[in-house]
Amino acid sequence: MTLKSLALAAAAVAMLSGAAIAQSSDVDQTKTNTVSPTGSTALEDKQLMGPFYTDDSMTTLRTGDEFTAAFNAMSSEDKERVRSECANSTSPREAFCESIKNIQ
User: 28 vs 20, 21, 37, CA distance in Å?
Assistant: First the structure.
């Protein structure tokens, strides 16, 4: 009987541990629209996104090698933030996000 109780307790602990791990994974997924120090999302941060555009109003995208060079100049953390926000279907920068998909 004691062996059965120990097995049930071990199973309960294992299940609770799995739930805690799954919960922490869900928390990580909510970081898709990380707010920058300026108070905006990465895709709206003029300092971060400015190099991708030819104008201050961020309406005309650079193309080809200039666009790729701007992306490659970003830190890996910023690249991940931008890719993550682009994965959000409500992204306000559809043309930008389409261009990012073409960069490996």
Answer: 13, 11, 19
